[in-house]
Amino acid sequence: MFKYFFLAILWLPSLVIADSTLVSFSNGWIKQLPPVVPMRAGYMQIENTGEKEQTIIAIQSEQFERVEMHETKMSDGMMQMEELYNLVIPAKSSVELKPGGKHLMLITPTVSLEVGDTVDITVTFSDETAQRVQLKIKP
Ligand SMILES: [Cu+2]
User: Fold this and answer.
1) Top-level CATH class of 2-138?
2) 101 CA to middle of ligand 1, Å?
3) Least C-beta-crowded within 10 Å: which of 6, 54, 64, 78?
4) Residue 80 Cα, ligand 1 centroid: separation in angstroms?
């Protein structure tokens, strides 16, 4: 975790915001929760139309102190969340972040967020390209 975070910081000045990337994001949303709850779960559909697999290694947002990738799993009859340090989108396929499965964990909002607001995240891939994605706050 620390290593990836450190690398992500090192890469920041040279980030290429790639419009031509073959990965597309859709239906991004965040479940609204009372302001006292310090975390929000985020979901989206990620599609890779390219011939090569793509790996997401970091996600950041100015509206949250930290964004992690998580997977919800059942273990001993309990729902547990595990942090994912990278998320592979296989060639010619898609991955859905959805309730009860893989999701974004957006930790500690830095601004107040209302239903209907948009949250911008920056998704960084292992090839050092990045894309901006918008998520809508929904009830
Ligand atoms: Cu989580």
Assistant:
1) mainly beta
2) 9
3) 78
4) 8
